[in-house]
Every structure is written in structure tokens, then in C-alpha cells.
UniProtKB/TrEMBL annotation:
InterPro entries: ARM-type_fold, Laa1/Sip1/HEATR5
Keyword entries, A-Z: Coiled coil
Protein name: HEAT repeat-containing protein 1
Domain of life of the source: Eukaryota
Coiled coil: 44-71
Pfam families according to UniProt: HEAT_HEATR5A (PF25468)
Biological process terms in GO annotation: endocytosis; intracellular protein localization; retrograde transport, endosome to Golgi
Cellular component per GO, a single term: cytosol
Length: 481
């Protein structure tokens, strides 16, 4: 423990990190030592310190690689033309043009080996060769401690492609994706009757972040590695979809975790990754199942995900999800469950559904007219909002969340009017009942505001002199200061 702390402190300074990277074999040997410590030390503190030292090695390697690229750029081209040679200096990373990552000679391989051992100690099922490494015993820590350790390993692992050339990064990508999806598979399992959401645990959050980092890596769009990278991302997405289908009578995979993992690919991976029909349709099917779930948290997360797809994705990606999910959102808004809200979660479901329809209306503006017609979407949204308005004494009798739904619906209507004046006027003209309810709600709202204003106690501006609780025998007021 003391030695690990000393190493961490030593490598916390720039000069020792530079000295470590002056001879790469020294850094590799240090990683081998860390690997052996992971195999032989059971304590939580030792495991944590090993990974903290590994982070310092990673930092040293990244600093050294960045310095090497800058130096090479200065030597190759003038300062104002550096961008022309960036692709060439990428080949200075591990793997170079061949993509070979050699054990014993590669620092990236040594660090990846430490990460693998670290994860396997927490999750033995991740071991790709269990028979060969049968002597590696799993460590039993508290779930929150184990989760944090797993997250640390993933945080280090996701940075390794930055030390590689395009082909070198492709060489380690299958291992990175295998371990990341493996963490999701092992850590997102719960009882079939469990309604909790596991996506917020440290290890799942780290796995999702790792997927996002890998999906947005610059080598994904590099012509030298892009096609292979996208193919591997498709394999990872296929595995995640397959995980959603697997299970047994007693356990299942957390629906929200799968949903968020799919969302990472939809929002951040290149469009070609998710547009393959054999991947797109299962993704849509999973979201359809989630939006129909009896678990309100699952349903809410699905609605939030759908809205993010609408606001971030291109038309080619979002169209299939609109066709599958938008009718179900409208069906929910017309149901009693959307109107008769009794909890904050139920209110959030209704508001999120309105947000989705509002986002669909935005898609009908001139640049997106090929998707939907604005007047059609508004003609569906406005009656729903009017239906959520409370009339007469029903406002006073309603609970807190129902009043909130009324107020937010009225605010939406008052926003839609000026934003889409012609369409809104046409809808109001077609239905006298809608117009009457909206006008009545506005009058009642203004009346409540006036009543509340008159009922507020007036604050006296004159300062009140407080009478002292302790009286002195001598009066000092006439004494000069």
C-alpha cells in the first residue's frame, strides 16, 4: 500500500512522468507489476491504488504521445500547414500502419491487460479464458464498492485508443467492446419482479459512457479505419439487442439500461451503424415494448429517449421511430391515465408526451414538411391540451399535480397561439367548444392571479424599533459619543 501511494505521488509530477516514458519498457514493466498486484492483493484499498497508479501511467503515455506528435509536425511542415500532416502523425501511435499490438512490447497492451484483470477480479464471467486462468479468484466487495472499481477500469480503458494509430485502435476495439458489453450483461441483471432502474449505478453509467466515447472516436470517421470501426460497432449493438431478448424465468436485464445503450448508438454513432434493417427494427421493437411497460419509470425513460431521438437525429433515423411510437404517444395522451394524474411520475409522463408532440410539430416546419403537416399535428395537440384544462370548481377540488397539469397545459396553449397564429386560429374557428374552454381558462387564471395579489399581506416599509429585553439602570442616551 505504501509503495503504491509513493508511486502515485511520484507520478503526480511532470518530470517523473517524462522519465517514465523516456524508456517505454520501464512503463510496461510497471504495468506488469500492477497486474501481479491485482492478482495477489484482495483489499479494496490496494485495488483502488493500483488503478490510480495506472491512471498516472496513462496520463504519462498521453503526454508523451502528444509531445511526439507536435514535435513531428514541426519537423514535417511549417506551423501554418500543420493540419495537412495530422493524418501522418496518427501513424506514430501504437500499431502504426500495420495495426500490430505486440504483447511485451506494447504499453497499450500492458495497460489493457491490467484493465482486463481488474474487471475479471470483480466479474469472473468476463474472463475470456476461464480454464487457463482458473486460479484467479473473484473478490467480494460491497456492491457499491465493486461498482466503483468496475467504473474506474472502464474509465481507463476508454482512453486507450487515443494512444494508437487508426489500425492499432481497430486491433484493440473488439476487446474494449467485449468488456464494455460484458459489464452491461453482468451488472444490469435483476429479478423479474424488480421495478428499480439500474442504469444509474456507477458501473452501468461508466459502461454507457465508454460506449459513447468509442462511438464518437475520430477513427470511426477515418478512411483508414472507419469501415472496420463501424462494423465492430454494429456487432456491439447487435449484442446489446440480443441481451434484451435473453433471460430466464427468474431474472431479466434492466430495460432502461438496454434502452440507454441503444440510445448511445442512435445519437452518437454514425448513421450507417444504426440504419441496417436487422438492427433498426429490433431497436424500434424494444422501444415499443418499453413505451407499453407497466413500470412508469421505464415508460418515462422511453419517452425521454424518443424525444432525444427527435431533436438530435436526422430524418433518416427518426422516421421509423416516429411511425412506430408517435401513435402510441397520442393514444396515451387521449387516455384517462394522462389526464387523471396523482403523482409526480404520472405528471412527468404526461408532460413528456406533450413535449414529444411539440417536438413533432417542430419537425413540420418548412425544412421538414416531407415528414408531417403542421396543421395536422397541431390539430391533435391543441385538443389534448384543452382537455387537460380544469373548469369551474374542479380546479379548487383538484390535487397539486392535477393543478400543475392544468397550468402547464394553459401555458402551452398561450405559447402555441403566437407561435403558430394561422394554424391556431383555424383550429379555434373550427370548434366553438375548444375556444370557449380556452377563453374561460384564461379568464379564471387572470382572476386567480388578481385574488392572490390582493390576499398577499402588505409589508410595512417603516422600520419597527424593537424594545430591549434587558434594561440598564443608567440611561446612556444623553452621553456624548
Amino acid at each position: 500500500i505504501i509503495c503504491l501511494r509513493a508511486l502515485y505521488t511520484l507520478l503526480d509530477s511532470t518530470i517523473p512522468r517524462n522519465m517514465l516514458m523516456a524508456d517505454k519498457t520501464l512503463a510496461i514493466e510497471l504495468c506488469n507489476v500492477l497486474h501481479r498486484l491485482l492478482l495477489t492483493r484482495e483489499s479494496l484499498e490496494a485495488q483502488q491504488l493500483v488503478m490510480e497508479v495506472l491512471k498516472q501511467v496513462l496520463k504519462a503515455a498521453q503526454e508523451n504521445f502528444d509531445a511526439l506528435k507536435k514535435k513531428t509536425l514541426r519537423e514535417m511542415v511549417p506551423a501554418n500547414q500543420e493540419s495537412l500532416a495530422v493524418e501522418e502523425v496518427d501513424l506514430l501511435g501504437e500499431g502504426e500502419s500495420s495495426g500490430d499490438i505486440e504483447p511485451g512490447k506494447s504499453l497499450v497492451f500492458a495497460m489493457l491487460e491490467v484493465c482486463l484483470c481488474h474487471l475479471v477480479r470483480q466479474l469472473p464471467a468476463l474472463n475470456p479464458a476461464p480454464l487457463v486462468s482458473a486460479g484467479v479468484r473473484p473478490i467480494t466487495h460491497k456492491p457499491e464498492q465493486s461498482g466503483q472499481l468496475i467504473a474506474t477500469g472502464l474509465n481507463v480503458m476508454e482512453q486507450l485508443p487515443k494512444l494508437c494509430s487508426p489500425q492499432g485502435a481497430v486491433s484493440i476495439l473488439p476487446t474494449l467492446l467485449y468488456l464494455t458489453t460484458g459489464v452491461i450483461k453482468e451488472c444490469a441483471v435483476k429479478n423479474v419482479n424488480d421495478t428499480s432502474v439500474l442504469a444509474s449505478t456507477p458501473q452501468i453509467a461508466a459502461a454507457l459512457h465508454c460506449l459513447r466515447v468509442l462511438a464518437t472516436d475520430k477513427f470511426c470517421k477515418d478512411p483508414r479505419s472507419g469501415q472496420q470501426w463501424k462494423t465492430l460497432l454494429q456487432s456491439a449493438l447487435a449484442k446489446i439487442i440480443d441481451l434484451a431478448k435473453t433471460g430466464c424465468e427468474e431474472t431479466k436485464l434492466d430495460e432502461v439500461t438496454i434502452l440507454l445503450a441503444v440510445t448511445v448508438f442512435l445519437l452518437h454513432a454514425p448513421a450507417e451503424v444504426v440504419q441496417a434493417p436487422n438492427l433498426q427494427y429490433p431497436c424500434i421493437n424494444h422501444m415499443t415494448q418499453c413505451i407499453q411497460s407497466n413500470n412508469l419509470q421505464v415508460k418515462l425513460n422511453c419517452l425521454q429517449t424518443f424525444r432525444r431521438i427527435l431533436t438530435h437525429s436526422g430524418c433518416n433515423i427518426s422516421t421509423g421511430y416516429i411511425h412506430a411510437l408517435a401513435p402510441r404517444v397520442m393514444q396515451y395522451l387521449h387516455s384517462d391515465a394522462a389526464r387523471k394524474v396523482n403523482s409526480e411520475t404520472e405528471l412527468a409522463l404526461t408532460i413528456e408526451s406533450i413535449n414529444i408532440v411539440d417536438a413533432l410539430v417542430q419537425l413540420t416546419e418548412p425544412q421538414n414538411k416531407e415528414l408531417l403537416q403542421g396543421i395536422q399535428m397541431l390539430s391533435m395537440l391543441v385538443p389534448v391540451l384543452v382537455e387537460f384544462l380544469l373548469e369551474g370548481t374542479s380546479f379548487q377540488e383538484a390535487n397539486k399535480v392535477r393543478k400543475s397539469l392544468h397550468e402547464q397545459s394553459l401555458q402551452w396553449l398561450m405559447k402555441i397561439g403566437p407561435q403558430y397564429p394561422q394554424e391556431f386560429k383555424a383550429i379555434m374557428t373550427q370548434s366553438l367548444q375548444l375556444r370557449t374552454r380556452v377563453e374561460s381558462a384564461i379568464r379564471n387564471n387572470q382572476q386567480r392571479i388578481r385574488i392572490e395579489a390582493t390576499q398577499k399581506p402588505t409589508v410595512s416599509t417603516t422600520a419597527t424599533v424593537s424594545v430591549p429585553t434587558i434594561k440598564l439602570k443608567t440611561d446612556f442616551r444623553n452621553f456624548a459619543t
